[in-house]
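Lab meeting, item 3. Inverse folding demo.
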């Protein structure tokens, strides 16, 4: 006999028809994290990057009774130390009204299966320091937090442009010799 909750949860690959739901869930995630969500131009880029000719990421859709209530957005990176690909989970979110129903676990299980199928050396993601509930959930699945690592970032704008300009100047100086 199947578990009644498990039979209500379904995970599948995201498809172009899911773009409005994916954008809705990303905006809900941004609200949860108290960050600005994607505007309409960003939503268009997300659709292109996820489902266009040159895909940058993949998605999984978490459904409850056929309704999209969660998603995972992921992509492949590479570990030079393991000499294997790494599955990197960028975002995992389920609507607060549908938490504790096995949707997040089902999404993570599918991602772990993909990592195994693709012979990944690692399956990684980041979690916000204040999201203790998520940290406990991930620990219950066997994930460990790496306290010795810190995420570094250059956002699009002056810092990124400044660093790129330094590189461009150096290349210009080398070519003019």
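The presenter then showed the designed sequence:
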């Amino acid at each position: 006999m199947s578990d009644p909750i498990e039979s209500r949860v379904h995970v599948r690959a995201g498809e172009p028809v899911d773009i409005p739901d994916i954008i809705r869930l990303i905006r809900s995630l941004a609200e949860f994290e108290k960050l600005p969500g994607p505007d309409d131009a960003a939503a268009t880029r997300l659709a292109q990057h996820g489902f266009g000719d040159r895909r940058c990421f993949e998605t999984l859709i978490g459904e409850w009774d056929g309704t999209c209530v969660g998603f995972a957005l992921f992509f492949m990176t590479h570990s030079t130390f393991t000499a294997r690909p790494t599955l990197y989970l960028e975002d995992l979110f389920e609507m607060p009204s549908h938490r504790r129903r096995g949707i997040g676990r089902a999404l993570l299980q599918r991602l772990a299966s993909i990592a195994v199928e693709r012979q990944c050396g690692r399956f990684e993601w980041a979690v916000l320091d204040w999201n203790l509930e998520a940290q406990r959930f991930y620990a219950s699945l066997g994930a460990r937090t790496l306290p010795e690592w810190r995420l570094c970032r250059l956002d699009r704008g002056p810092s990124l442009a400044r660093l790129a300009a330094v590189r461009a100047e150096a290349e210009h100086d080398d070519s003019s010799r």
